[in-house]
């Protein structure tokens, strides 16, 4: 009935079938005079989604998660993953060949300090690590009496016989009707930031920054419209965009050349060297700039200034055009969501639907809008115990039938030219248990606490994060992920620098869009998450002595009334929920057929104490 065009359900190669690759890696390292090598899950720009040609970690180990790192030594090898992926790593990796260890606490450097021997030579590709990461590796080597060795070419590439070619996705102009600000105006704002930094030039090492600054989008990585590229923005003079010209149509080239020179990516090093030879201070993004860039600038006599790329914050604060686009994208997405939720309610109780069926149906309803460019990340569709795996990705092997008594957790998003969406709903299939309703209501109350929050200028996500957890904490419960992340404007669904988490130190500013997604996960049983996107807006507070902010909820989708213990809601919480559902109904109902209208009327009907 439905099919997915933007998501695969195939199981990757894994386990013992890949053991020959580890042997080949060790042989190549020996040939190069190395006793070890570090393999991050990264491309040159630290992107969340990477092109197939950059999936070195997955090719070597079989692990396909979005965060991880491997270390191959002569006699031992380890794969480091964070808590989201411990279960997945155990299923995908040959544990006879690989140890599985924590990525965060303790970090891989602790493991290295224990396992490296005096005189060892640990190789790393300086194009795939930031300078901060390289510094940590160097310190671990020093502690063990070993040497950290930058390689000129990646040894994994030498043994990967069918490595895909780098992507050549076509570049599209992101029209002013979506971008809301011309490139020249953005460059003027960036240069004003360079004055503050006392920098002669800025390297845009993050393709998101290049895309935003020059109002272009691309198709080089899955789910994010990125044109893999670099740019060099001098304090004075014309910037240069470094991009493979095979990606550029005549119109895209003409657009770029109105505000910048266009050059091949391989000429970036030469341009930086020439700049550095004059003693220039060159700003680099500490989060995404490859260590190779820092080394190159310093070796040529320049001053690398490692810090936050100023475009990251500029990009995060959406202008009026982008805000209007996001509202339009969410209204459009809401119609697809209503059709999907009605379909699940109608069909799932029969026991005939699977997790994959749910993914395919939702994508099909989004494609019916006529505006879908891609999904914004692989849809998480987990029923029963699979819902308790926070970053679960359904495959043909793991696919589970949706049954009565289950909770179905579906976390998904869309890429439209006018905005990026991200929404999670938890759906009761049949009658939920009292425990499910209790946990869901605690999560909902935390979600409402964020949505209703009022906070002063300068408040950070770390200050708001406990609001989402308070009702879970009261029952001795919690969730192990952040409460919210920033979201781009037809760019990455996970955008910095702001977030709602204990690590969220960036002040929340009007125009930022963040997710609000508390959850609860009972291992082996079920998962719950409720996620809307929120826009930071001005809040009116009578008698306020400083500017105050709050949130406008952008997402428009019913929250499952069957899972709510209404008696546990306060009057303000119940009023928020009823007002939210009234807004959903008013915005979405006119765009639905009669049968789905009837479903929506019931799904958004007011609740009473």
Feature tags:
609 residues, alpha+beta, six-stranded mixed β-sheet, Creatine Amidinohydrolase, Chain A, domain 1, Creatine Amidinohydrolase
Describe the structure.
The protein has 3 domains: 145 residues, Creatinase/prolidase N-terminal domain (Creatine Amidinohydrolase, Chain A, domain 1); 143 residues, Creatine Amidinohydrolase, Chain A, domain 1 (3-Layer(aba) Sandwich); 280 residues, Creatinase/methionine aminopeptidase superfamily (Creatine Amidinohydrolase), CATH 3.90.230. Helix content is 35%, strand content 19%. It is built from 19 helices and 28 strands. The strands form 8 sheets. Strands 4-3-2-1-5-6 form a 6-stranded mixed β-sheet, with helices on both faces. Strand 3, helix 3 and strand 4 form a beta-alpha-beta unit. Helix 4 runs parallel beside helix 5, helix 11 crosses helix 12 and helix 16 packs antiparallel against helix 17. The longest helix has 28 residues. It is globular. The chain starts with 18 loop residues before the first helix and ends in a 6-residue tail after the last helix.
Query: Radius of gyration from the CA trace?
Result: 25 Å
Basic shape: globular
CATH topology of the largest domain: Creatine Amidinohydrolase
**The CATH top-level class label of the largest domain:** Alpha Beta
Give the percentage of residues in beta strands.
15-25%
Task: Indicate the mean pLDDT.
Answer: 96
Across the major sheet, the strand order is 4-3-2-1-5-6
Q: Summarize the main sheet.
A: 6 strands, mixed
Sequence stretches where pLDDT stays below 50 over 5 or more residues: none
Helical content stands at 25-40%
What is the helix tally?
A: 19
Structural class determined from secondary elements: alpha+beta
Number of domains: 3
Distance between the termini: 41 Å
Number of strands: 28
Which CATH architecture of the largest domain would you pick?
Answer: Alpha-Beta Complex
What is the CATH H-level superfamily of the largest domain? Creatinase/methionine aminopeptidase superfamily
